[in-house]
Every structure is written in structure tokens, then in C-alpha cells.
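TASK: fixed-backbone design
INPUT:
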């Protein structure tokens, strides 16, 4: 099959050509997409990437889309999924107003949607504040969060709970109560952190921290740009695509789309916070 999946992570199909920065499968080619797509001109019928484009700068993202156009055959299909800036902004304003009115649920939802908007752009450590939120002992607005981030969020949460279960003593009814020893260690860590913060206020930032932060922010995890239906449509037009359509996770002009389980797995949307869009190469 002449179908290409870029930045696939663990979401790939063995009958496609799958490319990612690192590979954990024989079906995934390891390659840095900042260096272009390692395929010949007009060699693919379909190019797809999900939650990849926003990890590139605005300029590099345009170059990636040009590369997608280059490797597609005439009339080939380009399918893109990205976090939808428009719906995030609408949700932010809606929950902001509800939180101001005093709604307790809205207060929690407001805190989450702010993380969706900012955290993956500003974080300096893997997982950031979103990771902390998903790793709480109790998530007060779990239904809202999973409606926003879908199957992948659930997988992160389930992995965390599974790890907690391994550490939990048999017969202990308190699901998340740490041992006395762990509590003492936690207090010591907090005290050390407090001391370090005091020192940092008086001294320059240590070189090791600067290097760590710089390496992390260049590692590819953070978001460097965001798109809505207007800006993404304009980008597709600019690099040579036409017949552009906004669609949903279930629909596509890619034949037998549902069987590949890339945007939808067992009828559940993998990333429901997405904007899905398709175009054809002129």
C-alpha cells in the first residue's frame, strides 16, 4: 500500500509506511522529519499525520506540509489532525464564565482547559502539569477530561492506577494512602525544593538546569504552534492542496479508513480534542 503515516508513535498500521523520530517496532522507520521525508516524489497515495504538525515551529510546519505534498501522487489524499485551537478557546471562555458564576464543576473544568491551552507549550519537564493532573489520586472532573482528550488520556490514567495497584499493600482499604516512610521522604523532598528555590532567588540559574531545559524544549515534546480550521485550511492551500474539507474522526475519503484504527479505536476517538481536515494534491 502507498499509504504514509508520519510521527506515528504507537498508532500505526503494519500495511502502511510508518515513520517516527524513534522506533519501537519493525513496522516503524526511524527518521527525523525536520530533515524531510525519506521517500521519492509522487510515491504515495495517502499521507496522514495526527498531532504532529503542532510540534513543529510555524516555519518548519510549512516545510513539512510541502514535503507531504511532494511525496503524494496527483489527486493523493492529505489527512491532518491537530489540537483544535478554536474549540479549546470556546471551552476556555465558556468555563471561565461559569467559574466566575460560582460553578464548582466549571472551576475544575476551567483549570483543565487552561492546561490544554498552555501546558504543552510552556512546560519544561516531560508530562508537565497535564501529567500531574492525570496522576492525581482523584480527578474531580474525570468525565470532562476524558471527553476532551479521549483514549490516550484514559491509557495514561490506567497506567498510573495500575502502578499504584502494584505498590498498594494487600488488604489496605486506603487506595492512595502512602506509607509513613514515603510521607517522610516526601516532606524531605519538599524542604529541599524550598531551600533550592530560596537559593535560586539569590543566585544565577545553574548551567546544568539551563542545559536540561534547553534539551527538553528542543526534544519534540512541546507544542510550538496551534491551528484552527481557518489557519490550517490556508496552510493546505498555500502548499498546493485543494478540495479541502473539515471532517470528523470517523469519516474520510481514504478507502476503508475505519479498519486502520488510527483516529478511532473500537469506536472510541483516540484524540477527540482534534481538528480533522483533508485535502487533495493538485
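OUTPUT:
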Amino acid at each position: 500500500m502507498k499509504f504514509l503515516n508520519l510521527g506515528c508513535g504507537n498508532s500505526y498500521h503494519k500495511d502502511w509506511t510508518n515513520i517516527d523520530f524513534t522506533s519501537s517496532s519493525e513496522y516503524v522507520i526511524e527518521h527525523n522529519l525536520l530533515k524531510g521525508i525519506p521517500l521519492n516524489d509522487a510515491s504515495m497515495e495517502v499521507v496522514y499525520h495526527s498531532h504532529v504538525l503542532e510540534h513543529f515551529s510555524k516555519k518548519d510546519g510549512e516545510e513539512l506540509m510541502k514535503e507531504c505534498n511532494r511525496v503524494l501522487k496527483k489527486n493523493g489524499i492529505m489527512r491532518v489532525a491537530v489540537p483544535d485551537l478554536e474549540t479549546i478557546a470556546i471551552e476556555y471562555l465558556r468555563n471561565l464564565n461559569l467559574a466566575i458564576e460560582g460553578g464548582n464543576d466549571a472551576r475544575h473544568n476551567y483549570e483543565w482547559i487552561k492546561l490544554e491551552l498552555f501546558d504543552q507549550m510552556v512546560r519544561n519537564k516531560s508530562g508537565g502539569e497535564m501529567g500531574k493532573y492525570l496522576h492525581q489520586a482523584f480527578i474531580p472532573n474525570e468525565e470532562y477530561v476524558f471527553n476532551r482528550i479521549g483514549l490516550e488520556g484514559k491509557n495514561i490514567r490506567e497506567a498510573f492506577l495500575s502502578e499504584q495497584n502494584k505498590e498498594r499493600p494487600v488488604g489496605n482499604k486506603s487506595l492512595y494512602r502512602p506509607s509513613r516512610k514515603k510521607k517522610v521522604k516526601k516532606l524531605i523532598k519538599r524542604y529541599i525544593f524550598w531551600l533550592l528555590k530560596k537559593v535560586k532567588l539569590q543566585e544565577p540559574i545553574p548551567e546544568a538546569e539551563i542545559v536540561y531545559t534547553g534539551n527538553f524544549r528542543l526534544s519534540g515534546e512541546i507544542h510550538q504552534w496551534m491551528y484552527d480550521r481557518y489557519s490550517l485550511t490556508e496552510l493546505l492551500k498555500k502548499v498546493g492542496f485543494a478540495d479541502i474539507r473539515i471532517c470528523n474522526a470517523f469519516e474520510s475519503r481514504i478507502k476503508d479508513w475505519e479498519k486502520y484504527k488510527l483516529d478511532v479505536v473500537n469506536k472510541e476517538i483516540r484524540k477527540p480534542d482534534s481538528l480533522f481536515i483533508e485535502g487533495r494534491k493538485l
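COMMENT: The longest strand covers residues 72-83.
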